[in-house]
Amino acid sequence: MTILTRLFAALLGVILVLVGSLWTVGSQQPSRVIYEQETIIFVAIRQTEASDDDGLTALSDNAIWKARALFPLIGDGENYWSDYFILPPDYGSISELKSASQIDDIYAAEVQLIDVPSIALGMMRIQHLIGLSKRPDGELPDSIEEVDGRLDILPSNEAIARSQALASDTQVTMVNFLEYIPADDGSKTQARQAYGRYGQEAFKAVHGVGGQFLFAGRIKAVLVEAQNEPMPVIWDDLAAMIYPDPTAIFAMEQNPDYRRSLGDRDEGLRRTRVVASKAY
Q1: How far is CA 264 from CA 20, 153, 261, 270, in A?
Q2: Along the 280 residues of the chain, how does pLDDT read in single tens digits?
Q3: How far apart are CA 172 and CA 246, in angstroms?
Q4: 118, 110, 106, 111: which is closest to 56 by C-alpha?
Q5: Which residue spans within 162-256 are E strands per DSSP?
């Protein structure tokens, strides 16, 4: 075996070990349990008081992921929905939910997941763990006036204060409801692409502050329409990211690449609602 051949074999071995490590770390990320499915059912319920209703018990038992809403980070008013669930595509559970006596209202949608490869997740996570990407230094914003972008799709001053008031070790999942700006012909392709460019930078920035991707997807069909939601919107996409603490999302503003992408976000979004939630 020549020296060149040995070097090539050694290099190939290193590459295989690296790829295997990235895949292993990525396959252990929270999203991979959800991504065992190609489609999921996203459910939001309004429950004004705790209940042991059989329908809710079945919902909780079948859930891949579940969280209690804390407060709206972006969007007017208080929370309407009290809990969020991700279910496998089993439509029988939706029929049971509709008959649950203690649910005041329900929204359920079938979501086509946007695939994010395990290797990409592993790369982002390892970069943060070894310090190649880290939470930027700098003062966190105290008011909306210190944050770039359209005011209607930015956190309110109250939301910033509520985030800062949470215990510093609280892991928060931000659930994003997204509606895109239609073109003159009604198509939302261009707006979705613009938001997608922002999403790529946001994906990196979230991992840079120690966060993790949970899921993103396009709403294929609304299975159950809300009956009494005060500000109903026909949402286009849903997404969620996990942050290691309540203020990590604001640290992303210190990332110059993320800040440059905000124009794409503003170009694509017509409306959004982002709700801080706590998984349980």
Answers
A1: 34, 13, 6, 12
A2: 688 777 777 677 777 777 888 889 989 999 999 999 999 999 999 987 665 566 677 778 889 999 999 999 999 888 999 999 999 998 777 777 776 767 899 999 999 999 899 999 999 999 999 999 989 887 777 777 777 778 889 998 899 999 999 999 999 999 999 999 999 999 999 999 999 999 999 999 999 999 999 999 999 999 999 999 998 899 999 999 999 999 999 999 889 999 999 999 999 999 999 999 999 9
A3: 6
A4: 106
A5: 172-180, 212-224, 237-243
